[in-house]
Design a protein that fits this description.
Oligomer: single chain
Bound molecules: adenosine-5'-triphosphate, magnesium ion
Shape: globular
Radius of gyration: 18 Å
Number of helices: 7
Structural class: alpha/beta
Helix content: 25-40%
Largest sheet: 6 strands, mixed
Number of domains: 1
CATH superfamily: P-loop containing nucleotide triphosphate hydrolases
Order of helices and strands: EEEHEEHEHHEHEHEEH
Strand content: 15-25%
Number of strands: 10
CATH architecture: 3-Layer(aba) Sandwich
Length: 261
């Protein structure tokens, strides 16, 4: 199964070695209007992510971590501010092209999985490839995509569950399907929202090893929102979202505080 991660390592995997900035955001604001009040969640987030870096984002429940991840991953738009991915400004790319680019180069593990209920685990995992190739090329790509999806599901320990629909899977199994799906198109950039949040210790360790292995072998860049102290402690850099801003200070100390959240 190791063939899905078998791309040669890059020499730029150490962010401190001066790897280029792959994602940058400046002045991001985001608020939600509920009833007569407006909830300001992001109040001017500045953040840079370097190629090959694993960045962990911490923060108390409800502080806006998922909101930030969705905005950084082009799934939602900010009220104000700019986001650049590989030098391309999100706002200057037309919607259709933006969706294509996102599907090709970004993988997203959602906090609440967002699997499609009418499709089984294998079909859910294959979905990004289907979207990428479109109906025309899909006939020629289907077999290879199916093999890759099977290999990814095996990698997350779900060989026996490929034909299960989401409702026939446990929470942790759904989470692992969501991880396999996020890896389907070999994204250069992976966003993970609490990827071990619903897993037991051993399975969480397997997922950590999988993600870190991908980072080492493929130089995949990752932004991971987590409450998992072990996962955060292994990240290259840790920041905290607090009061709508990114606090860059005190990485190791922040990890120790996780249990206090
Ligand atoms: N669509 C929405 N409409 C209104 N309010 C929202 C919406 N989405 C999120 N919120 C509110 O915005 C705040 C931030 O939500 P978000 O999901 O980003 O938090 P979080 O840090 O990911 O929390 P958790 O750690 O519990 O997952 C919360 O107070 C939430 O209630
Ligand atoms: Mg969240």
């Amino acid at each position: 199964m190791s063939d899905v991660t078998a791309t040669p390592a890059s020499s730029e995997s150490d962010p401190e070695a001066g790897a280029p900035v792959i994602l940058s955001a400046k002045g991001l604001t985001k608020s939600y209007k509920v009833g007569g009040t407006r909830l300001e969640v992001l109040r001017g987030v500045d953040i840079e992510v370097h190629e090959g870096e694993i960045l962990a984002i911490l923060g108390t429940s409800g502080c806006g971590k998922s909101t930030l991840l969705h905005v950084l991953g082009w799934l939602d738009s900010p009220d104000k501010g700019h986001i650049q991915f590989e030098g391309k400004d999100r706002g200057s790319i037309p919607g259709k092209e933006r969706a294509r680019l996102r599907n090709d180069v970004m993988g997203f593990v959602f906090q609440f999985y967002h699997l499609l209920p009418e499709f089984d685990a294998l079909e859910n995992t294959m979905m990004p490839a289907m979207i990428k190739h479109g109906p025309g090329a899909w006939r020629t790509q289907r077999r290879a995509s199916r093999d890759r999806a099977k290999a990814l599901l095996a990698l997350v320990g779900l060989t026996e569950r490929m034909e299960h629909k989401p409702r026939q899977l446990s929470g942790g199994e759904r989470q692992r399907v969501a991880i396999a799906r996020a890896l389907m198109n070999e994204p250069r950039f992976l966003f993970c929202d609490e990827p071990t949040g619903n897993l037991d210790g051993k399975t969480a360790e397997d997922v950590r090893n999988l993600l870190w292995g991908l980072n080492e072998k493929q130089n995949q860049t990752m932004v991971i929102v987590t409450h998992d102290a072990r996962l955060a402690s292994q990240a290259h850099r840790v920041v905290r979202l607090k009061d709508g801003h990114i606090d860059e200070a005190g990485g190791a100390a922040l990890v120790q505080e996780i249990d206090l959240d």
